């Protein structure tokens, strides 16, 4: 079962970030109250680190038992650990290095300095295996409590690009991406199948350059026009926007 998209507009990017951070803290606390731990999927890009910086500055951040949060990435640029263009590096600077996470629950996507070297397909398989190991019997990936997704001006989410053949990979939770239209060209991404296994899916979008992508995605465009439109949460699908990103909505 999936939930219909709901749009929430905040006046500015900072308000969007701060309000979404408050929402995230509450969702993680609620998940932990229900089952002791939480699975959180992070995103890169402009909003991916903005929301984490807002969590870092929040007086409520320590309401979360961070040692019981599993951290995953919706996608990663295939670059060595610590590279400033890696989503993980940006997310670490914004929040992750300042909170008491359990390193065993931080599920980094291997880069070219990892055990598979520059074999991105093997790195994606390794990440898929890690997802499967954390999943229930017969499942490809865990059920994520919160899935954070940025959206590109072209309608991409994670590293699933509209019209790109690699967005159609099925039967596995993570896949390599070659010739990404946005640099760097080589990436690892969760597939649509894995992205569909989230209770709460939140698109975080700011800026007028995203307004058209938001409009067509919320309207339910096909995969040739919007990858974002193909992803919905089981309980909740929220489009969390600033006023500029919402400017083409009717
Ligand atoms: O390359 C990426 O881009 C998207 C969107 O980034 P933005 O800067 O346009 O907001 C991001 O969600 C994805 O994780 C990242 O790898």
TrEMBL record:
Annotated catalysed reactions: 6-phospho-D-glucono-1,5-lactone + H2O = 6-phospho-D-gluconate + H(+)
Stored InterPro entries: 6-phosphogluconolactonase_DevB, 6PGL, Glc/Gal-6P_isomerase, NagB/RpiA_transferase-like
Functional pathway: Carbohydrate degradation; pentose phosphate pathway; D-ribulose 5-phosphate from D-glucose 6-phosphate (oxidative stage): step 2/3
UniProt EC number: 3.1.1.31
Highest taxon listed in the record's lineage: Bacteria
Residue span(s) of domain Glucosamine/galactosamine-6-phosphate isomerase: 12-239
SUPFAM superfamilies, alphabetized: NagB/RpiA/CoA transferase-like
Keywords linked to the UniProt accession: Hydrolase
Protein task: Hydrolysis of 6-phosphogluconolactone to 6-phosphogluconate.
Entries under PANTHER family matching the protein: 6-PHOSPHOGLUCONOLACTONASE
Family: Belongs to the glucosamine/galactosamine-6-phosphate isomerase family. 6-phosphogluconolactonase subfamily.
Annotated protein name in UniProt: 6-phosphogluconolactonase
């Amino acid at each position: 079962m999936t939930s219909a998209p709901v749009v929430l507009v905040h006046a500015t990017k900072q308000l969007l970030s701060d309000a979404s951070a408050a929402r995230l803290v509450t969702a993680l606390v609620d998940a932990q109250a229900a089952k002791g731990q939480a699975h959180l999927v992070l995103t890169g890009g402009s909003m991916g680190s903005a929301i984490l910086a807002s969590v870092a500055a929040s007086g409520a951040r320590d309401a979360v038992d961070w040692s019981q949060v599993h951290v995953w990435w919706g996608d990663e640029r295939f670059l060595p650990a610590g590279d400033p263009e890696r989503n993980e590096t940006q997310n670490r600077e914004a929040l992750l290095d300042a909170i008491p996470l359990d390193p065993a629950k931080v599920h980094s996507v291997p880069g070219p300095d990892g055990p598979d070297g520059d074999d991105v397909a093997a790195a994606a398989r390794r990440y898929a295996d890690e997802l499967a190991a954390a999943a229930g019997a017969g499942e490809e990936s865990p059920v994520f409590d919160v899935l954070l997704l940025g959206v590109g001006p072209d309608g991409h989410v994670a590293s699933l690009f509209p019209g790109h053949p690699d967005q159609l990979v099925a039967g596995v939770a993570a896949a390599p991406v070659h010739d990404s239209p946005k640099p760097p060209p080589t990436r690892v991404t969760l597939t649509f199948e894995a992205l569909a296994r989230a209770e709460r899916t939140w698109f975080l979008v700011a800026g007028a350059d995203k307004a058209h992508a938001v409009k067509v995605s919320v309207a339910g465009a096909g995969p040739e026009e919007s990858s974002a439109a193909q992803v919905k949460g089981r309980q909740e699908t929220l489009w969390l926007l600033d006023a500029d990103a919402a400017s083409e909505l009717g």
